């Protein structure tokens, strides 16, 4: 198993996370996946649209995370900084099994260690 | 050394056949840009083409690795295939970062090769390759290339033309208020797009992927900060509709004075 798949498996053990993917923040290429993260296919495009619209509105910083909430899930996309183009960690979080605050805290810890 | 090449109508069909037979070797692709596809046990483990930056360019031009560290790692006499692992062992690069860069370079090379039809291909024995741990089934390369072309223009010919364009800054790019809102990545790209560089040239200059550069150029074109060369090209034949000249610019009517007559 590739190293990145191992890392994603660890993310998948986070309470409430049912699927995860590591994406390229510019191209949307999926480097590794855990579970069945179909919604991840659009996560990069959603993040890109959000940044472009925020920039147009005068926002100048970097996007940190996006949470899209549906009836059953939180779709959490977190930016992973690195030298060069950023990565995105996408996680599908079951709303019945955790709350968004815990999920964001746990995912932030994974994000910090992802490429170390 | 040449190997038996399975009969195939195109590169994806060839890679699918190699995948089914779990073959190992190198596929030499001729044409422009051409390149080498490295296959191990039917999986694509690397691609090199002049059409897109490889792992070495991505590492050095992006300043993840300095030229000195790269030269020092090579000087240890390490097998070229294990050079990436040597950089990881020396603590100069994370193992996961190497895997990300390896995959990014592989998919980018596949995209560059997919923009043109090759002149031909030949299967040879395995060739040395900087090992990054990437191993991609060929059908995923096809799916990803289809997605990339759809994102850029939905048509391979138009994407290939965009890849040959040399966009240059539009007048709006000189407005500090407009550029201040851009991400640092887009601002760097705006500086590199000077009307002389193609997206490939910019990708090699900045140590970024060809597809990533094309996506960001698309953003800058959409924002009106870059313009396509066709907008600024001087001296091309006019395609404007022919209309009668207005009265003010038309040829003057003959004056009331009669023309001189020849007298016999």
From TrEMBL, chain A:
Record protein name field: Uncharacterized protein
UniProtKB/TrEMBL annotation, chain B:
Chain segments carrying region Disordered: 158-187, 231-264
Compositionally skewed regions (Polar residues) per UniProt: 245-256
The protein's name in its UniProt record: DUF4388 domain-containing protein
Source organism of the structure: Streptomyces fuscichromogenes
């Amino acid at each position: 198993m590739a190293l990145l798949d191992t890392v994603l498996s660890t993310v998948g053990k986070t309470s409430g996370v049912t699927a995860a993917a590591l994406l390229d923040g510019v191209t949307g290429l999926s480097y590794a996946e855990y579970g069945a993260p179909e919604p991840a296919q659009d996560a990069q495009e959603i993040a890109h649209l959000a940044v472009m619209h925020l920039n147009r509105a005068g926002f100048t910083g970097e996007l940190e995370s996006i949470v899209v909430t549906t009836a059953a899930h939180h779709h959490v996309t977190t930016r992973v900084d690195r030298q060069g183009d950023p990565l995105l960690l996408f996680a599908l979080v079951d709303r019945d099994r955790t709350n968004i605050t815990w999920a964001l805290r746990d995912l932030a810890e994974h994000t910090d260690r992802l490429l170390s | 050394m040449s190997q038996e090449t399975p009969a195939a109508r195109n590169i994806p069909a060839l890679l699918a056949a190699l995948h089914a037979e779990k073959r190992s070797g190198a596929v030499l692709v001729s044409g422009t840009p051409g390149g080498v596809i490295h296959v191990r046990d039917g999986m694509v483990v690397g691609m090199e083409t002049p059409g897109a930056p490889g792992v070495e360019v991505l590492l050095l031009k992006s300043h993840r690795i300095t030229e000195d560290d790269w030269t020092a790692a090579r000087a240890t006499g390490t097998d070229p295939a294990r050079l990436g692992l040597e950089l990881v062992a020396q603590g100069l690069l994370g193992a996961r970062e190497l895997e990300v860069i390896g995959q990014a370079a592989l998919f980018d090379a596949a995209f560059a090769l997919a923009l043109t039809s090759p002149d031909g291909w030949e299967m040879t024995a395995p060739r040395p390759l900087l090992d990054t741990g990437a191993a991609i089934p060929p059908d995923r390369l096809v799916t990803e290339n289809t997605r990339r072309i759809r994102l850029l223009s939905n048509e391979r010919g138009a994407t290939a033309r965009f890849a040959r364009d040399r966009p240059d800054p539009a007048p709006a790019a000189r407005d500090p208020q407009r550029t201040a809102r851009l991400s640092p990545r887009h601002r760097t790209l705006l500086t590199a797009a000077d009307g002389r560089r193609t997206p490939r040239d910019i990708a090699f200059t900045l140590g970024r992927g060809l597809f990533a550069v094309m996506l960001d150029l698309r953003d800058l074109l959409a924002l009106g900060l870059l313009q396509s060369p066709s907008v600024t090209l001087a001296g091309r034949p006019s395609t404007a509709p022919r209309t009668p000249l207005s009265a003010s610019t038309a040829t003057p009517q003959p004056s009331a004075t009669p023309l001189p007559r020849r007298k016999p």
